[in-house]
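Hi F.,

I've been meaning to write this up properly since the lab meeting, where we talked about keeping a consistent format for the predictions we share between groups. The idea is simple: the sequence comes first, exactly as it goes in, then the structure tokens exactly as they come out, then a line or two of notes. No screenshots and no reformatting. I'm using this chain as the first example so we have something concrete to point to.
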Amino acid sequence: MISLRLQDNILRNIITHVFTRMVGHKKLITQLDKNGFIVIPDIYTDPEVGQIIKIIDQAPAHGDTFRKTKDLFAIRQFIKTIPSITPLIFNDKLLYIIHQLFGAGYFVTKAIYFDKPAQSNWFVAYHQDLTISVDKKENIEGYGPWTVKQDQFGVQPPLQILQNNFTIRIHLNDTDKNNGALKVVPGSNLKGLYRPEAINWAIEKETLCEVKKGGIMIMRPLLLHASNRTTNNTPRRVIHIEFSNAKLPSAINWSERYQFQTHE
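Output, unedited:
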């Protein structure tokens, strides 16, 4: 019988191997800050991915947080809508990586599930993720413009908050150029508010971020990114989770705040 301590040590060794197989956490955070993104494979096993998909498929697809068309199935406020999925999402590997790269103090601020069906013609043009989700609209200096989507308030916060935030995209399918892998402009996260119409393609380069099933992509919100239509009749299912450590003005609160268990 393997002791719990030994099991924990074995798990730590596996996690460390996966993590350091890339380039080490200090170099990873340097790459993230410089390029605006990194890709880390093998965070979830095939059985874990299967369990996640099963829970999503069993969730009753009704209510304001669900959106279903021929080109897209999405679940907004994903963790609030399907809270039973959190132990699978925040497995030891993911918690370890978050702690090693970003330290303590971060929490979830938004979570969305995207299912791009095999026949989808849906595409997304280049953009930055400039808004955060809050509980109400208030007149606060430095916050604006405001949006409302499915009774959820979005606001553009001060630039410093966006610069410190990060997003993790969990891939439940192999994702490549044929089924909507993200295209990004490396380093655009360092240029503040960068309008797509201002992109100088004589200087900038486009990079395709292919991610295998069970892998993750970590990105900064200010990274310019886009995705193409599906061309190979293969689905693309992604869980998009945004994180912050920012304290908001007292008049507003994070509408989807979730404090996950830390892993030291």
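Notes:
The two ends are 26 Å apart (CA to CA).
The CA atoms of residues 63 and 81 lie 9 Å apart.

If this format works for you, I'll send the rest the same way.

G.
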